[in-house]
Amino acid sequence: MKIVQGLWIALLLVTMPAHGSSTNPGKVIAGWVEKISLGEPPVMLKAKLDTGAKTSSIHAANVEPFLRDGVRWVRFDLLLKDVDDKQHTLHMEKPRSRRVRIKDDDGEHDPRSVVELEICFDGRKHVTEFTLADRVEYIYDVLLGREFLQGIAVVDPESTFLTQANCPTP
Fold first, then answer.
1. Does the first or last residue of the chain, that is N or C, have fewer Cβ atoms within 10 Å of its Cβ?
2. CA 159/CA 140 separation, integer angstroms
């Protein structure tokens, strides 16, 4: 009986992929700060990976909600410093996914628009939600939260810059 059980376990281990497959590449080990890219042409940025934050956040200004064909949209400027500390302003209009109320350091609730943006993380393109926030007080213009990290990365708090920032061009 033990031999049969051992054979079944061995068979399962041989047939199961050790990591991800080409359709599901699996989780990558990432540091608490990683490089990502965003926009066209791509701007390379530093992003803080924060497992304590639910939703990702990005530094935005001039956030202006409006209606387009009865659908809620938002117009905004992303104010981003690249990895060389050069300032970039990306003007965007996106459908608003939802609105959230985030509790600030002073205990006040700050309403924020949430939009979907495409980023490149670890050499792969991802579409994820970001709250549009004034992050001028923070070191990093981009924060990647749990909803993004889930299924994509495991964070090593002792390391930085373990992943690839650029996505292959088609």
1. C
2. 16
Query: 149-162 burial by CB neighbour count: b if 16+ within 10 A, else e?
Result: beebbebeeeeeeb
| Domain 25-156: assigned CATH number | 2.40.70.10
CA distances from 138 to 61, 62, 110, 134, 158 (A): 14, 18, 16, 9, 20
Task: Return the amino acid letter for 36.
Answer: I
User: Tokens at residue 148, please?
Assistant: 């993004």
Per 3-state DSSP, what percentage of the chain is helix, strand, and coil (rounded to 5)?
A: 10, 50, 40
pLDDT tens per residue across span 143-162 = 999 999 999 999 999 999 99
For 149, the enclosing helix (H) or strand (E) is helix 146-149
